[in-house]
Every structure is written in C-alpha cells, then in structure tokens.
Specification:
Blueprint lengths: L23 E7 L6 H14 L4 E7 L6 H11 L3 E6 L5 H11 L4 E4 L11 H9 L5 E5 L7 H19 L11 E4 H4 L12 H7 L5 E5 L15 H19 L3 H32 L11 H29 L8 E4 L1
Parallel strand pairs: 1-2, 1-4, 2-3, 5-7
Antiparallel strand pairs: 3-8, 4-6, 5-6
Amino acid sequence: MADTKTPEMNTADTKTPEMTVPQLSIVIPLYNEAASLPELAEWIDRVMLQNRMNYEVIMVDDGSSDGSWDVIEKLAENNPFVRGIKFRRNYGKSAALHCGFRASRGEVVITMDADLQDSPEEIPDLFRMIREENYDLVSGWKKKRYDSLIAKKIPSKFFNWTARMFTGIRIHDFNCGLKAYRGEVARSIEIFGEMHRYIPIIARRAGFRKIGEKEVVHQKRKYGTSKYGFGRFIKGYLDLMTISFISRFGKRPMHVFGTLGTLVFIIGFAMAAYLGISKLIAVANHIPARLVTQSPYFYIALASMIIGTQLFLAGFLGELISRSSADRNVYQIEKEI
C-alpha cells in the first residue's frame, strides 16, 4: 500500500527512509514490563514483515523502575521502527496513551498492552477494518479470557454491561487494550485522568460515530504480575459517572446545576411562603398560632433555599470556567527516542 503524509509534513520530510510516514503506528503503554518487551517487539516485527506493512512502534514507559527504558533503548538501536517515550514518574495509562497518540504518525493507530496477553496476529485484521470497512474505531473483545473468575471475569462482565446501558455503545469489552483507530481519531481525542477505559465514549463525543468490535485472542500472562487490582472497578464506575456527566453537561453545566438549584429553591420558597401566609391568616383572624421559627418546616425551607442558591451559583461558576479555560495535559517527559 502507498505511504501517506500527514498535513504537517512536506515533500522534503519524506525523502529519507527514516522520515517515511508509516501506514501503521502501534502505541504500547507500559509499566515495569522489561521481561516481555524483547519478545513482543520481535513478534510484532515478524507479523509486520509477513504482511509487508510499513509501521512504527511507540513504547511509552510510564515511569518504570525495572529497567524497561534500558530495554527500549536497546530495541531502538537494533530496530529503526521502534521509538520510545519515557516519563519521569508514573502518570497512568491514560497519560501514556495521550502522549503516544500525539507522537504517532500512522494512517491507522493500534494500541496494545505490553504483557503479551494481546496478540500482534490480530493487527492486520484490525488494520483492514479501519482501512477497508471505514471504521473510526474498532475495539477488541476478549470473549475467552485467561483471568480469575471472581477477581476479573465476573466484575468485568457486570462493568461492561453497565457501561453499555449508560452509553448506548454496544461493545462487549470497553477496557480491552487492543484497539484500532483512524489516525485522525487518535490524534484529536483528549484522554485524561483514568478515562482510557472509555475511549469509545470520548471518540463518539468528538463526532466519530462508526465504532466496531472484533473478537480477539486473549493469552495468559507470561511474565510478571498484573498491575491492576480490584480497586480499578470502583474507580471504573466513578469514571463512568464522570464521563457520562461530562459528555452531557461538560460544556453547559448551568443546564444541570442551574435547573436543579432553581427547582430546590422554588420548593424551599414555597414552603416558607406557605408558613408565612398561614401565620398572617391566623393573626388576621385572631387565631392563636405558634411562631414561624418554631416550625421544623421553616428550617427545611430555609435550607432548601440556601442549597438551591449554592447549586445555581455552582452552575454559573462552571459556565465561567468552561468558557474561559482550555483543557491542558502536561506530562513531564524525561527522554524520547
């Protein structure tokens, strides 16, 4: 297949083989995976040669402490298709993917984990789905998993079911690390916090709506141990609520906070007005009545009006912030190959 050029590059940029824009960029975020990297790089290279694909591998070292960067440097010396980015400290998978996407140049971008549980043999089919079937994003589906039933399989199924219900995106495995993107998609979406689990949602929010799925092979971990514990599922649900709120109201917080605040204030004001009018009617008709402040409903009404006002102000401040500030992702990169 013919090479393509990104808009930022001119004809001079493509004169040497080193600067040829690849068909495919493979972004691999990693943390303490030194043992698996040589085997993974050799496996990817073998598959790419068999399929005659022009590619680059971008390994993003997320602050590893086991010598992973030394391995990446050696791989880059021996393989011109390997590039590396090293963070000064551990920022998380979302940060690694974000910087890997920004550094990618390929027409298609593939992400995969570094633990050898994602098979490079899946890459050609994922590439074809993006190129020939015109998908914006294709997510892998690990239908058969080699994970603990209690610790991962059951929570993962429940988590993915909930995500489908909340978002309406009908894919089975939101958190699968093996995904394919059109280059435009990968380089235009913003990934922050721990939102790598919800990249399909972020992509659809950015206007990329053709999202597909492919069943992929899941393999047993060969080296090391998993870096994710049970706590990731709690964080996952918190992130799901965050991304759902941001997707709907991120650019118009007044619509939710202002509406809710106004409603609560009106309820409190109506209660206070009822108490006040009842007191005036009783006084006008010389009917004994206790003080308004002696009624517990007075304090409920007062609290409702205060809370309603605070919610309204929160929406107003949210509008000011969203209209005057730009999203920024700043990560301290120590080295880059």
